[in-house]
Amino acid sequence: MSLRQPYLLFLGDAPDMLAAKVALGVKQWRPEACLGQLSMPGCKADLGLAEMSVGYAVSAGARTLLVGVANRGGVVAPSWVAVLKAALEAGLDLAAGLHQRLSDIPELAETARARGRAIHDVRSPERPYPVGDGRKRSGKRLLPVGTDCSCGKMYTALALEAALRARGRPATFRATGQTGILITGEGVPLDAVVADFISGAVETVSPDAPEDHWDLIEGQGSLLHPSFAGVTLGLIHGAQPDALVICHEPTRTHLRGLPHYPIPSLETVMEQCLTAARLTNPKARFAGASINTHALDDAAAAACLAEIEARLGLPAVDPVRTGVERIAEALE
Amino acid sequence: MSLRQPYLLFLGDAPDMLAAKVALGVKQWRPEACLGQLSMPGCKADLGLAEMSVGYAVSAGARTLLVGVANRGGVVAPSWVAVLKAALEAGLDLAAGLHQRLSDIPELAETARARGRAIHDVRSPERPYPVGDGRKRSGKRLLPVGTDCSCGKMYTALALEAALRARGRPATFRATGQTGILITGEGVPLDAVVADFISGAVETVSPDAPEDHWDLIEGQGSLLHPSFAGVTLGLIHGAQPDALVICHEPTRTHLRGLPHYPIPSLETVMEQCLTAARLTNPKARFAGASINTHALDDAAAAACLAEIEARLGLPAVDPVRTGVERIAEALE
Question: What is the pTM of this model?
Fold first, then answer.
């Protein structure tokens, strides 16, 4: 997988910023690769990049239109297809991490073929994975887990990779989702792996390593989310984490996509994740809390972090507001 | 996945009855769907059904030739292909749960296409499934869970379906694995579903039903098996069981395929399964224990059941030795 840069980030008709989290992640961790954004009518997401048509983007040097928006179920909205086709015709490659493959849409596949353009569907596994065997691997591993989906697990892992490297520790972010794969260029698209091979895929993506090396494994879903918990449990078992970080968005009232399910307490999620983690690593422990306080003002955020830190007896940080150095320090 | 019945059960050149255990299961649990059997020269298996050619079976009303035999490796023996092709030409669909897909054999795929017949390779999902939403569905549901894989969960669910029907209660076995699908003619091959859709697939296979109706949902894997627990957790969440049955093989010392993982206690498995089940059904409870005592003599089996019954305070049965009536009674 080798994507041509720079990107035009496609936001489609994203109903909110969370729906554009793929584009947000690429812009955050590879800003030099992001030339502009393309929104459709009704789009409620904005990355603060220059708004560009496909024609303008091509003339400005863009090489790939990256689909940075996802809706529930990961399908391609019919209204997007004309824009994606126009991008191919204008000379851009396409890259996406949706469940539905762009290359399975005949109109796009034919246009790409006719124009000699590439379509990268990074969510589709490119290789078979083995059944997990639960064998203890060398090296150290950290896994963020959440009280919900989309509450900062990937961001936390990427921030910890940077913080550990800044401290001179060997550390590698291991991508398990489409944004992480688009950012790093490799990884396993875990939610698209066949169910019997979830833990085996994670074992593969985080192999034996030197004893002082940390893998920062991208978290997925939540163990208490009725839609996706199977993915999360296989991830916990395959990751066999030495350290876990609890991720939480304190203003959310219900699970994403499920208004009939309230957000569980941090303590409940931590207890169940620890029970699961200790099946494959009896030494698993929590190393900190990563709280997404973007919806709070400074005073409320500080109070929130202090309250959670006192309650859990663990360093509580916001990766954006405070950085994750205190958790990196706790790993030593 | 929905197979046309009745079946002509294909026994091939099965060297013994064990090789025909899929056909045996279909005949045991769905005798009304079994019109006849077709053996090849050298076949040592006999279900006691009328021996039929494909032509005779079609004229007698058969709709599907079901491959009820498996050889080592789950491949299609070259000698079977001519018979399977003749079945398609005579007007039968084909169904199989082998590792090697019948539809990957060009001669069979082309014949099916030319004759307008279906080939059901039941290890592969035939449709996309939605993301699970955890919405409480009407009707009652029971799910067997195990201390390990392959310890009697499918047999227990089928036996409970029969026992409830014998008591005049509406009850439906819901298949989640290939043998169960071949037995009932429909279901979802859960271990082959894409990871994000595990719970959604189970919600689909066990839809809203009248309040007094029981779905007996086929269990898979084990919540404490590092290879397959993700499948099991998605199954528990999607099943939202009112009742669980703990399944156990008392002479096993380690998890199937993982000699470095001992079998967990019944209490540990039950506690963790109940915690998981209560996320989508707060009223979930255990209704009994189903113990596979085939490796014990009569006295040891009776002692084992008595010990577990006293320890758990739940009816403990062996579906083969004692039947499951006491659990069916406990469901009322």
Answer: 0.90
